[in-house]
Amino acid sequence: MLWTEKYHPQNFDEVLGNTLAKKEIEDWIAAWLAGEHPKPLLLVGPPGTGKTTIAHLAAREFADSVELNASDKRSYDILLRTIGEASATGSLFNQGLKLIILDEVDGIHGTDDRGGVRAISKIIKEGHHPLIMMANDPYSKRLKSLKTKSKVVKINKVHTNSILALLKRICIKESVDFDEHVLRTLAKQSKGDLRSAITDLEIIAQGKESITSADLELLFKKDDIHNIFDSVRTVLKSKNPKRIKDAMRIEADPAFILELITENVPREYEKKEEIEDAYEMISQADIYLGRAFQTRNYGYWKYTYDLMSLGVALSKEETYRKFARYANSSVYAILSKSRAKRDLRDRVADKIGEKTHASRRVVREQFPYLEMMFQDNDLARELADYFNLDDAEIKLFRSRKIPKRKKAKPGKSPKKSSEKPEKKAKSSVAKKENKKEKEAKPKKSAPKKGKSTSKKSKYPQDIGTKEKEGTNQNSSNIKEKPANPENKEKQVSLFSFK
After folding, report:
1. What span, in angstroms and rounded, lies between the C-alpha atoms of 156 and 150?
2. Which stretch of DSSP H or E encloses residue 324?
3. Residue ranges per domain, the chain?
4. Is the pTM of this model over 0.85?
5. Cβ distance 179 to 213 under 8 Å?
6. Which residue from 166, 344, 405, 491 puts its CA 20 to 30 A from 376's CA?
7. Can you tell me the distance from the alpha carbon of 98 to that of 460, in angstroms, rounded to the nearest whole number?
8. Following DSSP, what letter does each residue of 397-452 receive, concatenated?
9. pLDDT tens, residue by residue, 123-153
């Protein structure tokens, strides 16, 4: 049997350290057994600090448990088929309660685990049994939705002295002679990982009656992955180059580390000269980081890490022995708030660029001119129709809504517009006809006298003169005859429309 299993804690009192965390977990168990339904527990802490051990000790209080390990596939369907059914069915013991244990929920990712977090959220909402989840990285994005639905309990690293005391007890029980400095070295190298310290002791002491310093050569130094906030704290608190370089061995995006250091420099440093020098180092680190992304030559990262760690750390004259509350970067909070606006801007730029055959960057440069053009209602209406912009997208250029066109009522407005010129044309034609009739009346009486004289005359000369008068009368009638009223009306109406 492995020593980690042989010396496994049998109750909460044997669990080393984390006194407050153990008290919270015991109160949570008592609340469930009393008939209450508190939120699920989310145990967060580094590996080897006792999260799984605490979950197994809690399972003994319920006498029935279901556990899903990190090695299992945890897709949406698998979780609902296993954990979902277990959370919906009761147990024969302890008021029908069974404890559901989910290990390393921050490791749910990839194709095999697709929909895992969504399934856990559904189990939390619809389940009727206690649930304990465990995670190593408290800042994982996958825990963002689970933190709001559960009670987070932080499990800290075990202190070196506590690990040393346990290693001594194990050596006594195994009848192994030891030098205290050897065990202390094991405890320090474990960096708070109790499971790792017990495993290392078993490797160098198994089958031996005593252990010495020479046995430590069998062990390699533990490759520790630091917490990102611990690394930032080391950079701002320490001036030891070796310690700072060790602290920067961290699995995180260098841009995120740079933002955290930038945010917390004024919280730690007090002198203006130190803050100025630190930000100068940060700006230089940002330049090399940008070159790495632009050229795809990630060899620039080593300069980024050195400038933002050693450069910032050595900017201070001396270390500050004070408590400073560090905060997360405010840049990402600002970007998340403005994300909707940036998405709207890009969407509008894509629509305009599709019509104008321009890139998104070029279109954004024209936004100030478009904003001026959109102040005119008619031009704004035409631009919005041409680029197919909706009301939300139009607000990017003007605060007021574009007024709609006034539509003419069907069957009424055309008559009104056509009746007025027709009435004017008819009245003008009537007036001209009256004038023509008054002028034509005396002229029409002259031919009548001619006709009467022709009847009295009996000579052919009179006939010839009659014919001449007739022709003259016809010509005068042709000249003096008024125009047709309809044609006149048409002419007047045409001019009146103009």
Report:
1. 19
2. none
3. 18-154, 160-218, 228-334, 339-394
4. no
5. yes
6. 344
7. 145
8. T-SSPPPPP-PPPTTTHHHHHHHHHHHHHHHHHHHHHHHHHHHHHHHHHHHHHHHH
9. 788 777 888 988 887 777 777 778 888 888 9
